[in-house]
């Protein structure tokens, strides 16, 4: 397994990726520096906590289909990661999350107001990078950010006009997670000058793999007894946020699930009840059903890669699909 969690990564490609990701990492930290110490401290909080860096990694990988040394590729990768981090500050306020990326959440440490403003500060820093990359990058970021916001509003509002909850949830995931991961791949192809067919192929792949990534996190949040997802297991149960596993349970017509379904319809504040519900969910058929749904999306992502040339980068993208499936096993 490579240092990026991608099995079978070609050694020469891994060396290149490490060098590029080091540049991204350096830019992330240098770019958020400012004149106000508290803002710099709060901004560094989640950037320094790490994370999987999937979005910038996809940008770098995608850039290999064009001129991988072009100006704007490292900057685009930083844009994608900083956008993601900024949304985490806002998400944690809405979810009242105690942990993020294995550390105390910013809202828990500094309060909601500071956490929200830190997210806003990071969006401002993203805009500065985009201005240097060019108008096409600004347009891509604007359309992506629109989808991120709409996805959050849809999640807050819930299904409308008789829409099935699971269908609604998959659209929320596509907008809240798939859109930025899709944009990350498109940024790399676009800025490097890759052929249009490859750019469009990577855009579709990014959306599919982004959805799969979130569905895997949904399963991990229930099935894992550790903090593997970077959050406290059962966080979504405590907040009453529906996820793939709980929606599959709520679709059950089995009478034995009635009591569990009733609990899942509202936030669960009692920690003893959270523990009991997690125990029940871990042995429920909904886990296997959710893994099958994840597998279907991951297959779609693999299929989307069909038009790409056969090379080490394409092989890495195929292996990334396998790695995401394996995360939830």
UniProtKB/TrEMBL annotation:
PROSITE patterns: POLYPRENYL_SYNTHASE_2. It comes from the Bacteria. Gene3D superfamilies: Farnesyl Diphosphate Synthase. SUPFAM superfamilies: Terpenoid synthases (SSF48576). It holds the Pfam family polyprenyl_synt. Keywords: Magnesium, Metal-binding, Transferase. InterPro entries: Isoprenoid_synthase_dom_sf, Polyprenyl_synt, Polyprenyl_synt_CS. Its cofactor is Mg(2+). Belongs to the FPP/GGPP synthase family. This is Heptaprenyl diphosphate synthase.
């Amino acid at each position: 397994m490579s240092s990026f969690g991608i099995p079978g990564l070609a050694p020469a490609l891994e060396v290149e990726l490490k060098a590029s990701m080091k540049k991204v990492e350096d830019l992330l930290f240098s770019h958020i520096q400012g004149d106000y110490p508290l803002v710099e401290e709060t901004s560094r909080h989640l950037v320094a906590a790490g994370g999987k860096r999937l979005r910038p990694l996809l940008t770098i990988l995608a850039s290999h289909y064009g001129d991988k040394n072009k100006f704007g590729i490292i900057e685009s990768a930083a844009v994608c990661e900083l956008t993601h981090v900024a949304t985490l500050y806002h998400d944690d306020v809405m979810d009242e999350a105690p942990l993020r990326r294995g550390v105390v959440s910013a809202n828990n440490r500094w309060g909601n107001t500071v956490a929200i403003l830190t997210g806003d500060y990071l969006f401002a820093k993203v805009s500065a990078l985009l201005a240097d990359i060019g108008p096409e990058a600004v347009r891509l970021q604007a359309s992506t950010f629109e989808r991120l916001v709409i996805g959050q509003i849809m999640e807050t509002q819930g299904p409308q006009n008789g829409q099935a909850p699971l269908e609604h949830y998959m659209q929320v995931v596509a907008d809240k997670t798939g859109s930025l991961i899709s944009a990350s791949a498109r940024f790399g192809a676009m800025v490097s000058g890759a052929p249009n067919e490859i750019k469009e192929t990577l855009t579709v792949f990014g959306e599919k793999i982004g959805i799969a990534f979130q569905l895997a996190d949904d399963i991990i949040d229930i099935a894992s007894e550790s903090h593997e997802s970077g959050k406290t297991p059962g966080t979504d149960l405590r907040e009453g946020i529906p996820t793939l596993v709980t929606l599959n349970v709520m679709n059950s017509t089995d009478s034995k699930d009635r009591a569990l379904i009733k609990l899942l319809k509202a936030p669960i504040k009692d920690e003893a009840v959270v523990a009991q519900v997690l125990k029940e969910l871990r042995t429920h058929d909904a886990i296997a059903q959710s893994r099958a749904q994840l597998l279907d999306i991951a297959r779609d992502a693999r299929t989307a890669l069909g038009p790409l040339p056969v090379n080490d980068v394409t092989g890495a993208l195929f292996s990334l699909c396998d790695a995401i499936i394996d995360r939830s096993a």
